[in-house]
Amino acid sequence: MPPHLTVHLPHFGSLIRQGAKHLLESTIVPLGLFYLMLITVGFSGGLIAALSWSMLAVARRIVLRRPVPAVLVLTTGLLIGRTVLGLMTGSVFLYFLQPTLQNFLVAIVLVGSLPFGRPFIAKLADDFCAFPAAFSEHPRVVRIFRRLSLFWALVFLTNGVTTLWMLAEATVGDFLMVSTAGSWSVVGLAIVISLLWFRRALRGEGIVLRMGSKAAAATP
To answer: Which helix (H) or strand (E) holds 9?
Structure first.
């Protein structure tokens, strides 16, 4: 990679729309379906509805030969475990305890991926923006992703502690509303901080990110 490089990325608005689409598909819709079926049909109906949505989302992409986002694979895999536990125990508390504890699991995965060639957070970033290979595989860029991994591990630890406390204190409805709004507010703020930090760190390495190109490309 040349010592001075400009990487053109899609417009910031398109990145936001892409991220919102993944968030809607992998998290918000399954959660909304679960709560709707919970209050109208019952706990088991909510479990099946949420899992069915996620499984269909994965299957649709496979049938259409479209890439399956890493975030969708992660949330679907975790949802399968939650559903099995919920059906076996019939406990709403345990059903929501598992995703709360998953915050700690994701933090462990982020830290555990640091010794490997590409940290797990770099693969998640590909869901929102396909970086050029020459850029994402560069040792200096990988080092920045490792620092971001530590930052996001702290974010998930914070979310885990907060939602665990709320789960013990709030009703199901209040927990879903407040924890979802609070968690994604923290995540949204963390995304902004990450982007600003990312751009600043790259600038220090002689790499400039420019937003607004029609397709991601790297030019000297």
So the answer is: strand 5-9
